[in-house]
Every structure is written in structure tokens, then in C-alpha cells.
Amino acid sequence: MNKVYIGLGSNLNNPLEQLESALKELRDRTDIHNLSVSPFYSSKPVGPQDQPDFVNAVAMFSTTLKPIEILDTLQAIEHSHHRVRERHWGPRTLDLDILLINNDIISLPRLTVPHPYMLERGFVIKPLADITPQMLLSNGKTVEEHLHQINTTDLVCL
């Protein structure tokens, strides 16, 4: 079994409903087990500020799927939510990012794990710390240690 952590985000078409619906789709799958989810947070967008605030969360689950199969599954869920990639860091109905798979380091054309920006983003580290504060990351620091090194003042728990 692979232990997977994903980031969820949305800022279009009722973001809370988008995240709840995506989580239901994950729960309904027979190859995903023990799904747990952080609280939801509102946060300012990364990149262009001419868009609504985001709703973000982190989820953890176990699966027998291989990394590319996990990516394909998440992208299919994004597609079912009419995800459109119009501009880099632009608005979206649903964004599902693989943050971690076990303690694996993966570098493929379609997939990089750990997620290359996860340690820079409060909207990832705070909900990850809600789920697993003492998890040791590949750089030897815990999630909680990273939380104390990043600004999360714009986050509002929903």
C-alpha cells in the first residue's frame, strides 16, 4: 500500500462544494482506503491576484495504485469538475496535487514528488500539519518545524 498526501484547492463555482465533491469521488473508489482530510482554509491566490480567494485542504489516503495511476486518477477527477488550464496559477474549479507518496522521491516528465513548492506554501503546510505534524520529511525536518518557518497569517479556517 502507498500512503499518499494530496493538496486540494478551488476558487471557482462554489469552491467548498468542489472540494467536498472531489473528496466524495475519492471515497467512492474501491482502490482508495482510509481517507482523512484536514480542515478547509481560505487563502489568497498564488500568482495573479485578479481572482477569488482559494479554499484549500490536504487529504491522506492509502492505495495500491502506482504513482502515475494516482496522478491519472486525480486528473480524471479534475476533468470531471471541468478543470481548465488557461493560465499558470490562474483560477480553477479544482486542483488536486500529489504532495507526497510514502517517502519516495519521484522525478518523471509528468510527476515530481515531493511536490516542488509544498514547503513554500502555507495553504499546504498548515493543513498537512493538521493531519500529521510530526511526519518527518525527506529533508530531515518535521511538518510542524516547516509550519513555524512559513507565513500562514492569510489563512482562515472555514
Automatic annotation (TrEMBL):
Top-level EC class: transferase
Any Pfam family matching the protein: HPPK
Domain 7,8-dihydro-6-hydroxymethylpterin-pyrophosphokinase, chain residue ranges per copy: 88-99
Statement: the UniProt record of this protein carries the keyword Transferase: yes
NCBIfam families: folK
Family: Belongs to the HPPK family.
Protein name: 2-amino-4-hydroxy-6-hydroxymethyldihydropteridine pyrophosphokinase
UniProt organism field: Marinomonas phaeophyticola
Gene field: folK
